[in-house]
Amino acid sequence: MTTAPRPRFSVRLGLSQTVDEAPYDGVPEHLLEPLRQWVGNNFTEYDPDATALCLQLRMPVGTNTTARSRLISTNDWELLDVVDAILGYTGEDGWDGRDKDRTLARLLDIAGSAYQVNEDGDGLEERITPAVRDAVSQTVTDSEAKPNAGSAAEHLSTAWRTAYGLHPDPVRAYSEAIKAVECAAHSVIQPNDGRATLGTMLGEIRNARPKFRTALSTPASGDPIAPVEAMMRALWDGQTSRHGKQTVTVPETLEAARAGVHLAAALVQWFASGAVARTP
After folding, report:
1. CA distance 279 to 265
2. Are residues 53 and 82 in contact, defined by beta-carbon separation less than 8 angstroms?
3. CA-angle at 153, arms to 147 and 156, nearest 5°
4. Fewer CB near the last or first residue (10 Å), C or N of the chain?
């Protein structure tokens, strides 16, 4: 968890201006050598795993250098690619580069990096508020324990990684977010339709509103399912790349994908927890 940095001594004395401590993109100068050292500590000088990583990353190695030296010599985004690849690497002998002791996590945290090691320790992701990350993680855990939620946990986890990983894929993140909701809502909205989609579920809600209720307190004249319907509609209508047509396909933006993932997480939690249910 990132903590607020302690003001510098000179700042506390009023002798200098406050330094901007916002998360740093890329690899700032003060993080460069410590990060290179972390990379180097993972390999011996003629380590075959270092060679395998260079091949995986399509990084040419000169005749007068070693693969380990080539990995260490990188900077900025290429260095982050190396770090991310190490975290996700498993060698033929079973060695993997996961940040088990959280050494790298602490390094990035102290340095104020905009990136952090993900919860599984096998890759980098963009740093966000821990409470938000933990809430999504808990939803994944809860939905894994619910057989009637299908593959909702897997899809939501993938949506999260592709929205906040080092190399985001907004289109896939949004698509996986929708799949997560479809899995979680299927047994409640259209349990007998094997080809149900978020779109058909919205149609079911529209045509059979009295069949559904939520845990939210609703006035007698109110519509209990309306909040859920609005959230599902926003997620469904927000997908701009769902179908091809004569006009140019517009891929989802990263901002839209991340918003969609968080919206999906809330919906998955509602359905998996029973907060949305069919009326008796």
Report:
1. 23
2. yes
3. 150
4. C
